[in-house]
Amino acid sequence: SFLGLLLLTSFLLHIKEGQARPMGPVCDKRLIQKYIGEAKDMEKRVSQCQALPTLNCPVILPLVDFNMQQWKSKSDEIKRREILCNLVLLVGAVTEAQGQVSQECGAKQLGQLYQHANTFLLFLQTFGWEEGPWEPDCSPRSIEQTQVTEIFFTYRQLVGGKLRFFFHNLAKGSCN
């Protein structure tokens, strides 16, 4: 997709020389704010879709709320793995929902959400982490949902919460 390619390119352009870590979304505070804004917009747009169906097969969504004190005490690698687990579950839920929502407005929003969530997934999976390839061996706390809007709510919570604080924390150690 064009959007995915664009985001990937912007990540790649921000990689500092001599460092295998892309700093775009981490060092540029406006980028994470932009992603949070987009998450809110998508959530708003999907809530305005007419006759959005209830899902026949519930999707499994990660519970992405967190305790700030506990979160701060975790290493970056543990945080990254936790967010990856959440994203894997979320992308799975979006894919599952896409198979059940033929209604145009909902399907379009789900397609957009899939691209956004998948871009974060690829970013956290592939870029310059010393720990080697990531294996999805996780079972985060989760909940079954039948409302499409809950998927968007979970994504907004994840981007505005764990991801934002994760990037903020990385920036402290990596940006000039």
UniProtKB/TrEMBL annotation:
Q: Sorted alphabetically, which Gene3D superfamilies does this protein's record hold?
A: 1.20.1250.10
UniProt keywords, alphabetically:
Disulfide bond, Glycoprotein, Hormone, Secreted, Signal
A Pfam family cross-referenced in the UniProt record is EPO_TPO
UniProt-listed GO biological process terms: cell population proliferation; positive regulation of ERK1 and ERK2 cascade; positive regulation of hematopoietic stem cell proliferation; thrombopoietin-mediated signaling pathway
Q: What is its main location?
A: secreted
According to the UniProt entry, its GO molecular function terms are:
cytokine activity; hormone activity
Compartmental location = Secreted
GO cellular component terms attached to this protein's record: extracellular region
Asked whether the UniProt record includes Transmembrane among its keywords, one would answer: no
Query: InterPro entries of this UniProt entry?
Result: 4_helix_cytokine-like_core, EPO/TPO_CS, EPO_TPO, Thrombopoietin
Give the family, as the similarity comment puts it: Belongs to the EPO/TPO family.
Give the PANTHER family listed for this entry.
Answer: THROMBOPOIETIN (PTHR10560:SF0)
This chain's protein is named TPO protein
Q: Which organism is it from?
A: Odontophorus gujanensis (marbled wood quail)
